[in-house]
Task: inverse folding
């Protein structure tokens, strides 16, 4: 399994999608030999699928890759089977997870990544769905979607776009408080909060954490003080947890 889970798609000052992660992606392409990527855009609500496909083509095209929008395929399961790798966009996790289930793509995606070792690159919502469930998404449930189980590539929950902040005058829950609530209801789980510009990478069962901006990962567990992990820290214990 070779899976890259980015917190987000852009950093301030970036002009290109996944610009801050292109060196990591280039290394993946060279390592796996993947050239033909299928792009799953279903999390996007306010953007154009084909325009996003072209943005990704501009970035990955530098490495000799071709990016195809899965919406252009007559048979989307076959498109996954024939692709060398998979790209999954950020956006609304509720919409993404619902559409993957509705279109019968969850099983084929798991087979492609877990059994056929096809590289997977997700960001934001595309990272959320790599966890056992999408329960730690930041997104509003803008569609009727009762199914919370997702791709389960990793045995822990992920909170992309994690920000450790409070806003003056804001009386709602902070991100930490929302995660604390989740853990009180799901005490067996842990949540990895990954800030902007960071990456969780699973390669051959080994988990690593990288940051383009030096920000640490924050790990939450029920009724415990959160732990911070810098880029390069040993976080393999997270992969050894039971789901």
Result:
């Amino acid at each position: 399994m070779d899976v890259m889970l980015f917190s987000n798609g852009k950093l301030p000052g970036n002009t290109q999608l996944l610009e801050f992660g292109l060196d990591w992606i280039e290394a993946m392409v060279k390592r796996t030999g993947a050239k033909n990527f299928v792009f799953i855009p279903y999390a996007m609500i306010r953007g154009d699928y084909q325009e996003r496909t072209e943005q990704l083509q501009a970035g990955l095209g530098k490495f000799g890759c071709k990016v195809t929008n899965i919406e252009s395929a007559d048979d989307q399961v076959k498109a996954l089977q024939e692709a060398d790798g998979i790209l999954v966009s950020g956006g609304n996790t509720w919409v993404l997870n619902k559409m993957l289930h509705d279109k019968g793509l969850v099983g084929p995606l798991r087979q492609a990544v877990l059994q056929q070792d096809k590289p997977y690159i997700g960001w934001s919502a595309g990272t959320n769905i790599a966890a056992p469930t999408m329960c730690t998404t930041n997104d509003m449930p803008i569609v009727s979607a009762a199914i919370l189980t997702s791709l389960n590539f990793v045995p822990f929950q992920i909170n992309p776009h994690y920000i450790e902040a409070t806003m003056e005058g804001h009386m709602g829950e902070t991100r930490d408080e929302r995660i604390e609530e989740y853990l009180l209801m799901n005490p067996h789980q842990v949540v990895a909060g990954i800030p902007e510009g960071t990456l969780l990478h699973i390669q051959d069962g080994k988990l690593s954490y990288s940051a383009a901006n030096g920000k640490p990962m924050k790990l939450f567990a029920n009724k415990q003080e959160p732990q911070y992990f810098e880029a390069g820290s040993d976080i393999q214990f997270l992969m050894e947890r039971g789901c």
About this structure: Residues 2-163+192-217+228-238 form a domain with the Rossmann fold fold (CATH 3.40.50.880). The chain has a mean pLDDT of 95. Residues 110 and 168 are 43 Å apart (CA to CA). The two ends are 17 Å apart (CA to CA).
